[in-house]
Amino acid sequence: xxxxxxxxxxxxxxxxxxxxxxxxxxxxxxxxPTKEDSSPLTAVIKMGWLDKNxxxxxxxxxxxxxKLDVDxxxxxxxxxxxxxxxxxxxxxxxxVTSVGELKFEVVTNNRTFIFRAESExxxxxxxxxxxxxxxxxxxxxTISPSSPLTPEYQGNLELRGLRSKLYTVVASDKVYLxxxxxxxxxxxxxxxxxxxxxxxxxxxxRCFDLTTPYRIFSFIAESEQLREQWVDAMRDAIGExxxxxxxAERIWVEPSNSLCADCGAVxxxxxxxxxxxxxxxxxxxxHRGLGPSISKVRSLKMDxxxxxxxxxxxxxxxxxxxxxxxxxxxxxxxADVNCSTGMASWPSPLSLANAHSQPLQAELISHNLNTExxxxxxxxxxxxxxxxxxxxxxxxxxxxxxxxxxRKAREEFSRRWCTLNDGTFSYYESDKNSNPNGAxxxxxxxxLAVEPPEKHGYDHTFELYIESERLYLFGTDDPxxxxxxxxxxxxxxxxxxxxxxxxxxxxxIGRLKCKDGLNLQTSKVGWFALVGSTLHAxxxxxxxxxxxxxxxxxxxxxxxxxxxxxxERGRTLYIEGERKLDFADWCTAIQAAAGSGGDTLSQQQLxxxxxxxxxxSCIGYITQCGLTSEGIYRKSGVNSRVAALCERFRRxxxxxxxxxxxxxxxxxxxxxxxxxxxxxxxLFTSEDSSTWLGAAAIQDESMKISQYQLLxxxxxxxxxxxxxxxxxxxxxxxxxxxxxxxNLHNLAIVFGPTLFQTDxxxxxxxxxxxxxxxxYTSIFEVRLTAQWQTxxxxxxxxxxxxxxxxxxxxAEQHVKIPGSMTAAELVCEVLDRRNIMVKEKEYWSxxxxxxKEEMERPxxxxxxxxxxxxSFGTDSHLLIKKHVAMDAMIVYLASKVDASKHGMMxxxxxxxxxxxGLSSGSFHDRYFILNSNSLRMYKxxxxxxxxxxxxxxxxxxxxxxxxxxxxxxxxxxxxxxESKKQEKPERxxxxxxxDTQSEMREWYATFLSIQDGLQQTRVSRVLPDAxxxxxxxxxxxxxxxxMRNSVAxxxxxxxxxx
Length: 1058
Hints:
By secondary structure, this protein is an alpha+beta fold.
């Protein structure tokens, strides 16, 4: 907080705390929230890292995070500190100039501060901004009474744990700390504390604490009397910080309101709302003494809601019902009876009351009207539920505090006369009674659930959940009456903003809290309706949306059953359990809706491409682990294991992850076959399956293919996607027939009867499947490349061989590579398949290995794998292994002041002797300078002009130099330069050798940090940079701890989520 050479006195007491900027005792430190939670400060004009030179001629610089706003230049120990290490008032800055290399001076009348930027551009930018900020001001030499910083209270306070006192100033809504009164007078301080997040508490005789979410400041005053004065001053500052001048300014516009009605004081900040007069603070105390029945006093600054549209909204809603006392209370609190309702048909509360047949409400409003006329006003937008009336007999059980798990017999229901009127649902002993047995306000109802027919003793039932964690069950045998009651009750508590939900045939409808997108700090209210396997939602300030539960990537309950996490297409939605009773039933209903709903394809849990999860999982597992397994799909699995797998997939296919070692290839292949054989309606549909078999008899190949294409396009969407995925997979299997012995004919024999669900006595079904596989590319219009690209999804997949740790047959992994797969995702895929857990300080990477050039490089975690495969030759492959030098490279980069590097290396170009194709030349010493823009090579250290200058963005750096070049050391780098020019692309390759291994690692680490950044180095189960529209989202997998870590990392740096 102080300048570096003066901070020793803060540390002598043994209370140094490097995490903070105030060096508080450890016991007084609170956890620091993320920057999103920080208290709002004055708008920052510029901020960034600078090196600061302490005063008194010290030679060393220390790195500081610097912020500039219109009033102060502040510098911090790091970018996460809330309280600064020092502040310089811009009002006292007399000059800002550039001095020396990358340096600039900030000059006041009594002090000169020197800062150093990382580049000349950055230095010039800081100088320009500072000059603009101070231009036009008359520099001050000392604080004067007319200064902008006018203190309400000031003096010396001791901060507990320090040997010296700080000069403390309470001004407006802030508290400033200075080393002494002299520093205060010259505008050079330690820090400022925003009081809108503060709380003052008296402790011992002379002590008091100023508590904020970030630090606890424990002050000691010189006497008990002074302590009281300090506490009062700081509490006034808190009041000033929390106050809102908007209402006061609007009221003061009227000249008669600019003076106190009693004593004439200027700009009174209080009002007697029932007397319609404004008074000053002193007179407000006298009015309070009269009692609220005579004078109801409110603050113009603190009680903002009294003066806002919230009262107007409440009044407009309430006049539609018969609660006259509530309307009277709202009028006494200041609600304007002359306000505009925002509705053209009923522009005033009086017309609204008359329209809803409320004569007493209309009479009360008319007696409180004044002579003002409602003019053209901005409409007040509020959501008032439509006034609904309904009555009739229902059968009701006693209310419950827990979910209903057993069937309720008819004997447990009692017949009740029920009415719904004025937003209140009441039930009576009979239609003759005037006093209800009980009543539920519509505002208390949070959920309405429609039970399946005949679940209880009465054929048609519904449940009502209320705020107080109670559940009410009602029933009837009349389906029309049941439907009308459900419609009326839902209409009474669902707001107008979510009215489209009422038009759905919902099974459950209600209110829940949720979070989504990047706003994970604040919950918002959402209105949800569950219809079949679709969850319809209307969130705050957004249009309605649909969540297809069977197509979710993930559905889990986290944080001790308090959060339901739904991940769909990269979008994560967190539904929170505000009340245990209805939330538990929502979770049960959503989980049931998200499961498989039957034996047809469309009723299965689906992927984003509308393929059943069971089919996608089995195909993926066999592609990865069984393509070379002899007799795949022909061998039988263990029947008990196959039955268990089928049951687990049927219960929840999404939660089952097939793993090598845990599941056998033949068990999985038989599970897939059994699924298709037992499928209701079949893959080809019972209506058209005979037509498919008939097409197999067509002799003309082109006519046969056209008929297959016609039949394929007639299939339902899910059937089409599933058939194409399966035939694509079988096409891949037969390409490995030399190893697995499953050629085209053998696969057709197995899958013909399975897919057409026939007895297999003839080869008709087999012929159709053989045709589909043989003419796969024509029927499904798939384009193949030399590496037989497959076409499961738009853009296609590759089946690629990846090796784990070393290149050998036992380490081979056949992986399906979609066009969007990144290196990090490929590493996770392979490690998951081999059940390898990533330990602390382990850095797994995907490496590009070139056997011919004897070089290798780790792919950046966001680098797409497919383009790398396209550029491969036959002598290259991908290898998943640990990056053993990564930890040392990270430590090295953390110790660097800047990103550049320079030094001597041995250099050799790739040149060929004409006609022989042999490289020539030898290694020569050269001096290199690497910065964020370019790599420059000089003949020697003293050279002024570089021999070569390459842009860094066009360089690709590999570890290793091929031995035939006879490198002078074994610590070499191969650098490939590729120009981006369309008209004349250029490729160069040369070699660099370092004297030591650590030197080579330093150069390589610098290359990586400049090109890609070394933020992402560890593997995790979170897939980076998933997006939904233009909003970054967080798909989550794994345990609760992994979820929390993912959210925390994402909130700090979305691009560095690993």
